[in-house]
């Protein structure tokens, strides 16, 4: 299979963006995950609910990360 054709298939595959967004969230790549979630919902309106669910999870993870960061910095500056 020609690599360019394979790349084209990936770019139009909503499941690819869903799976990559989940992976990116696990490694705290929040901005890239957000972009993939947007791409997912743009490509496949039928997956809008899944995209919204991922967005909610992403927001929760970002809040947790912020809390951890604040707690860490407070220890340094006491």
Summarize the structure.
By secondary structure, the chain is mainly alpha-helical.
Counting helices, strands and paired strands, the structural category is: mainly alpha
Oligomer description: single chain
Share of residues in helices = over 70%
Radius of gyration: 16 Å
Alpha plus pi helix count: 4
E-strand count? 0
Uncertain segments are none
Name the helix and strand elements from N-terminus to C-terminus, one letter apiece: HHHH
Q: What share of residues are in beta strands?
A: under 5%
* Main beta sheet: none
Report on this model:
By secondary structure, the chain is mostly helical. 83% of the residues lie in helices and 0% in strands. It contains four helices and no strands. It has helices at residues 3-11, 14-26, 30-43, 48-76. The longest helix has 29 residues, at 48-76. It starts with a helix and ends with a helix.
């Amino acid at each position: 299979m020609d690599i360019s054709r394979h790349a084209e298939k990936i770019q139009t595959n909503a499941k690819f963006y869903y799976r990559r967004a989940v992976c990116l969230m696990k490694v705290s790549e929040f901005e890239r995950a957000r972009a993939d979630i947007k791409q997912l919902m743009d490509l496949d309106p039928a997956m809008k609910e899944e995209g919204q669910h991922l967005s909610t999870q992403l927001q929760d993870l970002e809040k947790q990360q912020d809390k951890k960061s604040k707690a860490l910095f407070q220890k340094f500056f006491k």
